[in-house]
Amino acid sequence: MFNKKMIALAAALVVSQVALADDKLIDSVSVDYGTAAKVRMERFSVAKDWDVQWFQSNGTHLSGYWEASVGLWQQKQYKNISGNDKNLWDIGFTPVFRFQNDNKKGLYYEGGIGVHRLSDLYNNDTYRLSTLFQFGDHIGVGYVFDNKWEVAAKVQHFSNGGYKKPNTGINYLEVKAAYHF
């Protein structure tokens, strides 16, 4: 556990150095924590703002960002056997639309649909995903503070879109903390 935390800290430091360079490759970093039926997920993400303002009106607009993520899913009932633990990794890329204030602070609403690649097939509790490739869509609400920190709540759904059975899907309730550079 200590080694994982040290690797995560080192990765965060490298990402922050890249983000603080003059030609920023990323605009924010975030950590998500989510739970679903007998599974939990921790995810680290980096994001790049689109820097556009569509439908600007009354101090608000529609914009968005690109998000790249790496997540760990900790299954607690693998193959529907109580106490049978198994972890898998998730790598994802998601375009996210965000309705926000023009100054990018305060309350916002967002939604996105992206692609994810799992390291192994998900088979936990009574939920199964028959493919490694998954779509991940989410909706969320959050708040960006004046000090560049952000908190959010999201609902995220993973599914292969029904192109291979079984495909029960999985729904996570998530909290997010982010820092904007």
From TrEMBL:
Main location: membrane
Catalytic reaction annotation: a 3-(acyloxy)acyl derivative of bacterial toxin + H2O = a 3-hydroxyacyl derivative of bacterial toxin + a fatty acid + H(+)
Ranges in coiled-coil conformation: none
Signal peptide boundaries: 1-21
Name used for this protein in its record: Lipid A deacylase
Keyword tags: Cell outer membrane, Hydrolase, Membrane, Signal
Molecular function terms, GO-annotated: acyloxyacyl hydrolase activity
